[in-house]
Protein: DUF45 domain-containing protein
Organism: Ruminococcus difficilis
Amino acid sequence: MDFAYTLIKSKRKTISLEVRGDELIVRAPKRTTKREADEFVKKHEAWIIKKRGQIAERKATEQAVPKLTEEELRALAQMAKKVIPERVAYYARIMDAHYGRITLRCQKTRWGSCSAKKNLNFNILLLLTPPEVLDSVVVHELCHLFEMNHSARFYERVYAVYPAYDRWNRWLKENGGLIMARAGNR
C-alpha cells in the first residue's frame, strides 16, 4: 500500500513516523533521500495501518461519549474556581513556588500551561479526573516556574514532589481524550 506523507528534514539522527488522523509525517535527517523515506514508510506499513485504526476507533468512541450540558459545565467551572487554586496553593507552599494569575477554562487540547510571566492555566475538565491526576498536572505546571522545558532537571523536580507522576500522567494519556470529548465542540 502506498501512503502519502509529509517529509520533514531536520538536524536529527534517525527517521521517525507520526500519524495525525489521516496525515502521515516522516521526520528524517537532512541527508535522507525520498527513496529512503519511501522504504522506511513501506517497512512500517503494518504499524501505520494499526495506528490509523486505533485513531479511528478512538474518534468513534469519543463521538459516542455523552456531552456535558451548559449547566453541568457552569457547575464544573464553579467547583474548579475553588478546588484548583487550593491545590495550586498547597503544592506551591511545598515547592516554595511563586506564581501569578490562575486562569481556568474548558479547553479541547490542553490540561494546563505555564506562561513566561508565571501565570498558570488549567482545564476545568480536570475535575472529572481522579484527584491524583489533577495534582499531577498542578505539580507539572508549577515545576515549569523553575524549568520552562521538559528536561531531565524538570522531571527530577516533578518526581521529587510527586513520585507517582508517571502513573497518573499515563492515566491522563489513556483517558483524557474521552474526558475532553465530553465538552463537545465548545
Remarks:
- DSSP finds six helices and six strands in the chain.
- The longest strand covers residues 23-29.
- The chain has two domains: 6-64, 70-181.
